[in-house]
Amino acid sequence: MRKWIAAAIIASGIFCFINCKKNTNAVPPVTLGDATLTDVVITQNLSFPWEILWGPDDKLWITERGGRISRINPTDGVIIPLLSISDVVSRGEGGLLGMVLHPDFATTPEVFVAYNYDKAGVYTKKIVKYTYNGTTLINPIVLMDNIPASNIHNGTRLAISPDKKLFITSGDASVSSRAQDMTSLAGKIQRINLDGSIPADNPTAGSALWTFGHRNPQGLVFVGDRLYSSEHGQNTDDEINIIQKGRNFGWPNVEGFCDTGSEPSFCTINNVAEPIKAWSPTIAPSGIDYYKNDAIPQWKNSLLLAVLKDSELLQIKLNAAGDKVEAVNTFYKGTYGRLRDVAVSPQGDVYMITSNGGNADKIIKVSKAP
């Protein structure tokens, strides 16, 4: 019997040596309690990608800060360029940033992007809607403009709600006082209709403002009608927040929870919403997505968070109600460097993009091992 097993092992090894293509990008699988994960690089030679999302055409859609929008075949990693936006200006962490597709893409093939550009010598952010014609993006329409931009703290993640409103995160653009200044578009989360008009039920009539007191929110995802955001702190208190209409999120007067110095009184007076999770020291949280698939059962009902400074993927396990964090688990720490964003496919595969620079950034696929 042992001889038969040994012969089978040798035979299978010979077969794989002849027929299996070696994957030099793969690393040893990560073993978990309920499933074994495997990860593989599917695309390389990207330059500071910012957004990755799963499209209804079963392709990955990405932005790169230099101005390029592409589709990626998740099977073979082939890059399909769509458009290079000519007026994008990439400075520091600025450039072409967030992107989202219309929820009814098959009948309304609209693509919403946010990017920084030079407006008469002033670094500025605008929101532009394009139409996808099957080959490229055409008919740009500016939906929102004059959002302050900077080399840092641009925020700029986009999400569309179940009732088809566009949400836009905007950082304080390196001036912290803007976050509490209701006359500034910086340090806010905006909410507009998909045609750029202002919804009648926004907190302030005629204003796109939805929430304020934000420093640098770089992650945004809807789970049903609940909106989660990840946000960079300064030296302490990176955050996961549940975004609530009209609420103040504290920056720069409050960092993390309302628990030190003058924070409790400021929070009471100013209707400050506390995070559901905070990290000190900071980890530099960026893009998030929600995992609800059975493919990796131990990740179900979790936010997946791409982390820059700590170079890792975090699983943030939520309670059944979705309003508290039960556990945080770390994966791929230091394996691929800085991670900028994460997307989940309908099949339960997870795709991460790096942010290491040098035209060497990658897309990594994480899935349940066969």
From TrEMBL:
Q: Which residues form the Glucose/Sorbosone dehydrogenase domain?
A: 47-357
InterPro entries under this entry? 6-blade_b-propeller_TolB-like, Glc/Sorbosone_DH, Quinoprot_gluc/sorb_DH_b-prop
Q: Which organism is it from?
A: Mucilaginibacter psychrotolerans
Instruction: Report the transmembrane regions from the record.
Output: none
Q: Name one Pfam family in it.
A: GSDH
| Recorded superkingdom | Bacteria
What is the official name of this protein in its record?
A: PQQ-dependent sugar dehydrogenase
Concerning Gene3D superfamilies, the annotation shows: TolB, C-terminal domain (2.120.10.30)
